[in-house]
Structure prediction request, 335 residues.
Amino acid sequence: MNLHASGAGNSYGYYPMLASTANAWENGKSAQMATESISLAPAEEISEETRAELELVSRARSGDATAFGALIRPYEARIFRLAMSITQNREDAEDVLQEAFLKAFEHLEQFQGNSKFYTWIVRIAVNQALMKLRKRKSDRSVSLDEQIDTGEDTVIREIAAWDPDPEQRYSQDEMHSILTEAIDELAPIYRTVFTLRDVDGLSTEETADALELSVPAVKSRLLRARLQLRDKLTRFFKRKGDNAFAYM
Amino acid sequence: MLTCKEFLAELSDFLDEATDREIKAKLESHIAECPNCFVICDTTKKTISVYKGMKSCTIPEDVHVRLMAAVERKIAANQKIAATQKV
Prediction:
């Protein structure tokens, strides 16, 4: 999927393909969009964790609410963080969390276990978050019309070595604020890719699958996200007494 | 030798250890001779590392409770529909 090409000029900016998926959900085509079509991996390749998860899926499908609760519990905070990273609004993120898990429950028969349950949930949550953004698109605080910056000039403003243990300079709360503020300053697509790939620890392929992006698109956004964050954090973590020197 | 721009283009794969042996050798050779790229590489690696340890934000318990209540309502509605269809 070439997002650079397909995204130009539409009202969804960063998420053109996902936005089309969001439309499909609204048009009642969600079943088709989310259906897992590949059969399960051979039994010996399934980890204990996945096996336990599939058991919960099976029980939840037959109407066991407790099993569904146990299935989603480990992912709630991560889905909330992801929803926050897209909506930038706590109330909206709570709505997205509710709507995404409810939608997952309604369409649980379409999850066949060939991808991680978390990746499947992420896809639904991202679509719900985008629909939320679309509904408030008159709100100027969220710009969806911003073009993807395809420039090759990667942002390097400052080069300075960091303290060996920059975390030691700040309390846990201060560290959390620094990291959150830096990530919040990223454009939404970089923020989402970075959150899934480097904070949640999904592989590049899983991130691409969850966001319906190509692997090269994930890689290029991830690189830019990492470099931009590095640049922002350098302000806080650079070794005292070092002079920054310009990038050549 | 690679240019700094070429080095940066490969930086993510290098940090993820996803480059082939030949490219990896070229990248290592570049940072051995380019102090700027060495610092960028090192601080980007630390950037990834500090975020890996970042905790998820907590969600209020009532969000989970409301969600489960909605799920149970859904199950009850499904069972009602199923019972009606049997009749």
Q: What stands out?
A: Chain A touches chain B through 50 residues (CB under 8 Å). The radius of gyration of chain A is 20 Å. The first helix of chain A runs from residue 3 to 7. Residues 1-40, 140-153, 244-248 of chain A have pLDDT under 50 and may be disordered.
